[in-house]
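Quick one before lunch.
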Amino acid sequence: MIFQAGGGHTGGSLSSLDILVALYFHAMRYDPKDPQWSLRDRFVLSKGHSVEGFYCVLAEAGYFPPPELDGYGTFNTRLYGHPTMKAPGVEIPTGALGHGLSVGVGMAIAGKLDGAAYRVYVLMGDGEQAEGSIWEGAMAASHHALGNLVGIIDNNNLQISGKVDAVMRVASLKDRWSAFGWKVVEVDGNDMVALVSLFDRLPKDSSRPHLVIAHTVKGKGVSFMENKPDWHHRAPTADELDLAERELDKALKDRD
Amino acid sequence: MSDAGGKSCRHAFTEILLEAALSDSSIIAVTSDAKGSVTLGDYERAVPAQFVEMGIAEQNTVGVSAGLARSGKRPFACGPASFYSARAIEQVKNDVAYANTNVKIVGVSGGVSYGALGSTHHSLHDIAFMRAIPNISIIVPCDVAQTRAVTRFLTKHVGPVYVRIGRGPVPEVYPDDLTAFTFGKAYELCGGGDCTLIASGEAVYPALQAVGELAAAGIRARLLDMPTLKPLDEDSVVTAARETGAVVTIEEHSVYGGLGSAVAEVLAQKHAVPMRIIGFPDEFVPAGSSAELFSYYGITGPGIAATVRKLLDRQRFRRG
Ligand SMILES: Cc1ncc(C[n+]2csc(CCOP(=O)(O)OP(=O)(O)O)c2C)c(N)n1
Ligand SMILES: [Mg+2]
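Model of the thiamine diphosphate complex:
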């Protein structure tokens, strides 16, 4: 997709892909034939730039046919370079960072008002934590006792300009979110078994919102992309694509 | 005037900013995880003490800039135009314009530069937002030479200014930066008496091409480049309307609230003539590159020429 389009957010898509897979193919209840089903679990990609991985997951989940992915970024496609309301399965357009949590808070308040048992998941970036609006949402979520809200941080330690702690320090995420009244858990965000069991264990009857700090590797799975700020927004060359595919195929074989 | 653009306006801006910063330690670039997209890398390496990183926090960046300005600094708050003109707009209104702080807000990758990344990243309403706020000037340069001249102006000027520049390389309109910019003045790029085109920013080049197309059809169009959108050069607008009898504006912005609106407000009250506003209609745009979107909405030489001819045909028909 990114190769064909000549651009895309490679690094952040790869770091968060395992989280999306664990959510869409294990934790979440939804019906791709009825995207507006009122009891569906909600997912908001607050770090909207990681859209390429998100589209792949939505297609695989049945929201639209996978061949449509080939049109990503082309003229008049439904698959823009950030999620929009045109793409089936998207709850809210994102791309401007720092919006997703507030929207998730609204969805979670509505769920409580309606006595509906759905859960709301919001995936944020660690660089994104610098946006003040996130902390407004965080405060509101604990004030309104939104136990049906799960925030997840893709904690890959990188943003565009380099290491998150060098650009705008967020340490300690755990202490900050705890101080805002959230129950914080940490997990290896690229370990599928750990993710799946964590989402299974999150209590549904909590009176506090949950925050999952997912420790991830930006560019996960492709040796020359891992932990490299350059790959935040970059398309692979034909050779790089080939190499990446071979590495991923090999990883798949080794696993089986 | 050439088609092939080597450099981008972003590079021109940061080059001149660095030149000025080396001799004026009060110049501070403030940014929000956007040093790459603004092209501030060399600047940061050369004058690290005059570079302030705020992380992904545009509202904070503008507020901090106002504080710096109140304390004798000359801050340039730099980052994507979309986030500075929308998300941080209250800081712009209160902490910059209302407070009259000497903050320059430089929005890069403006208009539809971000192409298929979509409307979250486009700034097609920034001029409208900014124009509605008192006490902040608005400048939209059209090429590298003009950006250099504008940046030189900014490093000396005192008071709130919003500048919007694009992302990619742009074709040359001005051969050198000595004559490319005077604050508050329109530039007559082509003389002509049959109608007037008024354009700003990256719409100037297609407007120039339209002038060529029209000339081939025997229509002599005047072309005004309008880099300063506020304060607007009202005299040039009224003179052009009086002398040519028809005005078409062209801009990389919503047809609401931008250059077209500014010109229409003047003409409706001072010298009404038939007019057309070419820009982006009142809708969120389809996915596409910036070139695809310009062409989809007719912001091209042939597209602009066609709109002009229709307007003139209608006038001729009316006059009988
Ligand atoms: C409000 C806003 N400001 C700036 C940007 C530009 N931007 C896109 S991605 C990004 C870095 C995000 O870093 P992080 O949140 O750590 O995401 P990840 O590392 O997971 O890709 C920035 C600054 C944006 N999309 N929205
Ligand atoms: Mg990150």
